[in-house]
Write the structure tokens for this entry.
Amino acid sequence: MNEIDSCNNKDIKSDNLHLYGLMVELIIEHEGHINEKQRRILDKKIKEWQISDSEAKAIEEEKGKKKKLYKELKDIIDSAGAYIKAKPSPDILHNLNNSSCNLFSTDKHMEALEYIDKILDINPGDLNALTGKAIILFNQGKYDEAMAYYDEILNLDEQNDFIWTNKGDIL
């Protein structure tokens, strides 16, 4: 065998190993494991492409580990995303609250209410946001809606004199 044939055989061997790896990866990706029918097909390719049993086994183990690692990574990312969504940065709530206060103080109540609603989407029990929403509703003459928010606030903080006073103003 001359040097050119040797290089071509190495290239062919490398291509065959790569193809085998792709076949295994596709099977594991879509099926999760190699079933009997797929095993027969892979075994034929092992013989046809002159892949040793140890090379085939190493490829299959590598692809199986890779799939497992991808799943673990996806689970970690999903958990982190759920945690971040459940526990937003205090800075976000602080910034939303500051924005709503600034808008409220310049009589832009509807715009302030948008920020308050964002806060309440993140943290439904935020007393400042609930109070702000109740006050805006009260100022708009929506006394029944304001009263519902005052009651909700008092369920969370029954000693809140400010809310008791505002509730008395409605009654």
Notes: The mean pLDDT is 84. The helical segments are 3-31, 36-48, 53-86, 90-105, 109-122, 127-139, 143-156, 161-170. The longest helix spans residues 53-86. DSSP finds eight helices and no strands in the chain.
